[in-house]
User: What shape does this take?
Amino acid sequence: MDEKLSRVDPKLLELLVCPLTKGRLTYDREHNELVSERARLAYPIRDGIPIMLVSEARGLDD
Assistant: This one.
């Protein structure tokens, strides 16, 4: 994976929230996802762009 694409700007992470719960997100570098523990969802990051759609999120129980 391209090193540049596997980073998330910390300022962006401070601004983004889970669209379902409005809660904090954490960055999972291994899977390149933003994780909402409260919603039990992981939002993918594609080409450096977080995809903040519940329909695109992966359930953490998967």
